[in-house]
């Protein structure tokens, strides 16, 4: 009788699951918040997992959908912000130069603390 063999397997499995969980948590933690600022002042900060449409000063509408962010209904002359592809990674941003509005994605330091 070798009672430890399955114990070792279970322990290894648990460790593997924990590692996979931490790796997954770190990846999903990449971008957590949508920061919208107008003329260098933060207008609002929203969690990326909260879908919705958020008008910014009658200039454009920020849409959060399935972990992605994009701009709709912009009144600026060039509509470059509308044409920008949806962003989903921390550090990325959509800028509307005529309206001086910046939509950026930021991660949080909290998950890094958990990983440590
Ligand atoms: Zn624009």
SSE blueprint:
Blueprint: H1 4-28, E1 33-38, E2 41-47, E3 52-56, E4 60-65, E5 68-72, H2 80-83, E6 93-96, E7 101-106, H3 110-115
Antiparallel strand pairs: 1-2, 1-7, 3-4, 4-5, 6-7
The structure holds zinc ion.
Zinc ion binds at residues 74, 76, 79-81, 96, 98-99.
List keywords for this structure.
binds zinc ion; mini-chromosome maintenance (MCM) complex, domain 2; 116 residues; three-stranded antiparallel sheet; rod-shaped; four-stranded antiparallel sheet
Characterization of the model:
This protein has about 120 residues and is an alpha+beta fold. The protein has a single domain, classed as N-utilization substance G protein NusG, insert domain (mini-chromosome maintenance (MCM) complex, domain 2, Sandwich), CATH 2.60.320.10. The chain is about 30% helix and about 35% strand. It has 3 helices and 7 strands, in the order H-E-E-E-E-E-H-E-E-H. The protein has a 4-stranded antiparallel sheet, with no helix packed on it. The radius of gyration is 20 Å and the shape is rod-shaped. Residues about 110-115 have low confidence and may be disordered. The protein binds zinc ion (ZN). Zinc ion binds near residues 79, 80, 96 and 98.
């Amino acid at each position: 009788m070798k009672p430890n063999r399955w114990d070792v397997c279970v322990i290894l499995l648990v460790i593997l699951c924990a590692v996979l969980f931490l790796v997954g948590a770190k990846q999903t933690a990449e971008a957590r918040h949508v920061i919208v600022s107008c003329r260098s002042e933060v207008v609002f900060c929203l969690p990326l997992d909260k879908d919705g449409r958020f008008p910014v000063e009658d200039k454009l509408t920020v849409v959060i959908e399935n972990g992605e962010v994009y701009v709709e209904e912009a009144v600026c002359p060039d509509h470059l912000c509308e044409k920008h592809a949806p962003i989903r990674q921390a550090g990325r941003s959509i800028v509307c130069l005529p309206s001086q509005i910046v939509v950026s994605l930021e991660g949080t330091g909290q998950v890094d603390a958990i990983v440590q």
